[in-house]
Every structure is written in C-alpha cells, then in structure tokens.
Amino acid sequence: MIYINAIASAVGLLIGVVLLAALLTWVERRLLGFLQDRLGPNRVGWQGSLQIIADMIKIFFKQDWTPAFSDRTIFIAAPAIVMATVLLGFAVIPFSADFGIAPDLNIGLLFFLAMTSLSVYGVVLAGWASNSKFSLLGGLRAAAQMVSYEVFMGLAVIGVVMLAGSFNLNDIVRAQGRLWYVVPQCIGFVLFLIAGIAEAHRLPFDLPEGENELGAGFHTEYSSMKFGMFFVGEYAGIVLISAMTVVLYFGGWNGPFLPPGLWFALKTSLFIFFFILLRAALPRPRYDQLMSYGWKLMLPLAILNLAVTGAIILARAS
Amino acid sequence: MFILTALRTCWLTLLHLFHRTETIQYPEQRPKLSPRFRGRIVLTRDPDGAERCVSCHLCAAVCPCDCIDLQKTEQPDDWRPEYFRINFSRCIFCGFCEEACPTSAIQLIPDFEMSEFSRHNLVYEKEHLLIAGTGKVPDYNFYRVAGVRGTGANAAPVDPRGLMP
C-alpha cells in the first residue's frame, strides 16, 4: 500500500511538474508582454490559456530531424539527460509538511546539487553531439558557466546547512519555523539566487544559447520535441531553482493561516515571477564579465559568508 | 555599482506591469490612420466627374519599383489612359507617384487591407483603381487651371504660380 502511494505521488509530481513547466511557457510570454507594454498570446482559449496546447500540437508536427553529421546516440540522449536530471531534482523537495517523494532524504541538498551538476552534461553533450560550430560554442560556454557558478552555489548553501545542521531538506524547512534563513543568510541567498539563474541558464545568464551571436547555442540543431524537451526542461529548471530558494531561504512550507502546500506554491510562484522579470529587465553580460563576476566577486563573497557564518556559530556555541 | 542599477532596472520594468498596453488588437480594434496615410493607390476624378489622369507617365517614371504601367488612348485630344495598371505586389507605397502627378489624379489613401490569396489578384487594373470622387483634393481641375489648347476655355496667359494644385 505504501508503495502504491509512493508511486502515485511520484507519477503525479512528474506529470504536475511537466504540465506546470509547459504552462509556464505561456505564463512567461504573457507576463513578458505586459512588462513590455504588449499583450502577449491571448487568442487561444480564455486569455490565451490554451496556447500551450496549440504550441504542443505545432511542435509535435514539426519534422524531428537528426542531422546526418551529428553523433546520433548522444544527440538523442542529450535532451533526455537535461529533462531527467531536472525532474529528478524535484524528488527531494518538501512541497508541504507531508508531501514530497523523498523530502527526508538525509543527503537531500547534496542530491539536488548533484542533479543540477549532471544537467550540465545534457547541455554540453547536446553542443558536442550536434557537431556544428554554434552548438559547440554554446556547449563550451554552458560548461564553463555552469561549472564555475556551481562552485559558489555549493558554498552559498553550506551557510544554510551550518545553521540547520542538516542536509535533510525537511529538517532545513522545520528549522526555519521562527526565522527564515534569508535574514541571517542574506548574502548566501543572493549568491544562491544568482548561481541558480546561471544554473538554469536563464537570462541574464543565458550565454549558452545567446541567440544573437550563437544562433540558438547548444540547441541550434534540435527540432521538434527534442527541442521541446530542452524548452520544458529549462522551465522545469526555473521551477526547481525557485522551489529550492524557497526551501532553503524562505521557510519552505512554513507560514501562518494558509495550508503549507499553498504557502509553498505562493512563494515559489513569486520567485518564478522574479525569473521572468529578470528576463524582461536585464541584458546579458559579456562572457568575460560573466566569468569574472563568478570567480572574482561571487566566489570570495561566498567564502566570506561561509567564514562569518561559521565564526558566529562558533562564538554562540562557546 | 552594477547590482544597484540592475535592481533599479528591475523595479522600473516591474512598474510597466501597470502601464496600459500599446497593442491594438487588429481585427476587432482598428488603428487610427491619418488622412495622409500612404495606403492603397486610387485614381481620382475632377469635380466635374471626368478622369483626372492625363497619361503623362510621370508616376510610372518616378516609381522606384516600376510597378505602374499605363498607356494613352490613340484618340486625338483624349488624354485619358487606355489602360492603367498598378502591380501592388511590387508597390512599396512610397507616395512618389502622388507627388509627381501634375493633376492630382493618383492618390494614396488610408487603406492597407489588400490581402489576396493569389498574387495575380494584386495587379489592379484601371477599373479597380478609378474611384468616383475627387479624393484628397476636392476642387482642383487641371484643365481649368492650365487651359486647353485650341479652345477658348482659358485664353489668358497661364500664370505659372497659379498652377500649383
């Protein structure tokens, strides 16, 4: 019986996340429209809410072309890797007090970091297997960007781990009953968010697919639903990073009056909105700027944050 | 500090959420076109109802994309074009023809809804171009200002400054 429940919640979550990611494509286009004094897609269904169905039908009818010059196996595997790793990341997220697939996994945070790291492979392999210059350059950029931003992402979350004393995400959420970690870990929060944006390769850090210089970057050669998987994977990545920010820094499902699941959804959607706002507001940095922010500014800040947090914890303990 | 400017940009962009959208939802809402909008080309008539065009070919000569073709009739003292043809699949709506026309016959009007399923339907013949009215220049009759040779209609010497439409 327990297994059936677990399987049901896992399948439900899988479908839910994919549908949510698909819906986000419409939400983003609508919001971007409003932020740019436009309307966005509003024709299909009520206020354009069925736009995703139209897009799905369209993308399924596109020719699913695997270039003859590509490395076929890896080319096909790459979008699946991106999608699978992002979806696996949701396994450890505590959506509410008692819902989630493995929220009590004792290495939950490490599992999340591992999954975001693995999703780099999808992008890099896509760039490599496409065997075209734009794709390769996109893949190169993705590798360098995501590896260097991962470094201080890991260091930034260590502050939270030190405060909560656990890698277990449910424990981290429970430890924030009184005070959200965004207050003591404000620098860590900013660092994590920036690293998260870079990990999801969203604007302003979408250099791997910088369309005005690289065509479409690592997914230049992809068409039809293989491209669709990158697309949905990207939006699922946004949801994942938003959910993780809420879990680590904004008290997860903690909150008064409303049910915990609703609190979690509200906070997560706020961060998803922030991601979309960033896309509307900020231009892309130059590639060397991106690298120098990462290594010369964010990494020292993360180490400083770590040291100060540690010092304060030690001072309190003694 | 770039973080502060980035945050300020975010805030200013957020405020645009509450601005009115600029979009005109076309088939339901119509854009406001000014009278001098350069749209579909028409051939107008003078106040007496006669065709204004005198087949001078200036419009065809000035046309940068050679989309105007016309020919005068062979009847003496009849200056109307035998055929007048505008290929709107080539026309760029620059309005040079309207500026070149000495009789204000050819005019661009505020209408852009000219979509066709077949490219050939975009070639407008004289009967498609000719309208009943005077267009934008209501009371201008070229012959009455310039006179007609061999008639007493305007025997006095022509004042070149009065020739302006």
User: What is the oligomer described by this structure?
Assistant: heterodimer
Count of domains of chain A? 1
Largest beta sheet of chain B, briefly? 3 strands, antiparallel
Number of strands of chain B: 5
How far apart are the first and last residues' alpha carbons of chain B, in Å? 61 Å
Shape of chain A: globular
CATH architecture of chain B: 2-Layer Sandwich
Number of helices of chain B: 5
Number of domains of chain B: 1
Could you give the order of strands across the largest sheet of chain B? Answer: 2-3-5
What percentage of amino acids of chain B are in beta strands? 5-15%
Ranges of chain A where pLDDT stays below 50 over 5 or more residues in a row are none
Average pLDDT, all residues of chain B: 87
The DSSP helix count of chain A reads 11
Please compute the radius of gyration of chain B using only Cα atoms.
23 Å
Give the CA-CA distance, first to last residue of chain A: 48 Å
Going by helix content, strand content and strand pairing, the class of chain B is alpha+beta
In short:
Chain A is mainly α and 318 residues long. Chain A has helices at residues 2-35, 51-61, 72-89, 108-129, 133-164, 169-175, 186-199, 211-214, 224-249, 260-281, 287-317. Chain A has one domain (67-317).
Write the layout of secondary structure elements.
The complex is a heterodimer of chains A (318) and B (165).
Chain A: H1 2-35, H2 51-61, H3 72-89, H4 108-129, H5 133-164, H6 169-175, H7 186-199, H8 211-214, H9 224-249, H10 260-281, H11 287-317
Helix pairs in contact in A: 1-9, 1-10, 3-4, 3-9, 4-5, 5-7, 5-11, 7-9, 9-10
Chain B: H1 2-15, E1 41-43, H2 58-62, E2 68-72, E3 81-87, H3 96-100, E4 106-108, E5 123-124, H4 126-129, H5 142-146
Antiparallel strand pairs in B: 1-4, 2-3, 3-5
Your description of this structure?
The complex is a heterodimer of chains A (318) and B (165). With 318 residues, chain A is mainly α. Chain A has one domain (67-317). Chain A has eleven helices and no strands. Chain A has helices spanning 2-35, 51-61, 72-89, 108-129, 133-164, 169-175, 186-199, 211-214, 224-249, 260-281, 287-317. The longest helix of chain A has 34 residues, at 2-35. The radius of gyration of chain A is 20 Å and the shape is globular. The mean pLDDT of chain A is 87. With 165 residues, chain B is of the alpha+beta class. Chain B has one domain: Alpha-Beta Plaits (2-Layer Sandwich). Helices cover 20% and strands 12% of the residues of chain B. Chain B contains five helices and five strands. In chain B, the strands form two sheets. Chain B has a three-stranded antiparallel beta sheet with strand order 2-3-5. In chain B, strand 2 (68-72) and strand 3 form a beta hairpin. Chain B is elongated and about 80 Å long. Classes of the chains: A mainly alpha (318), B alpha+beta (165). At the A-B interface, helix 1 and helix 10 of A face helix 1 of B.
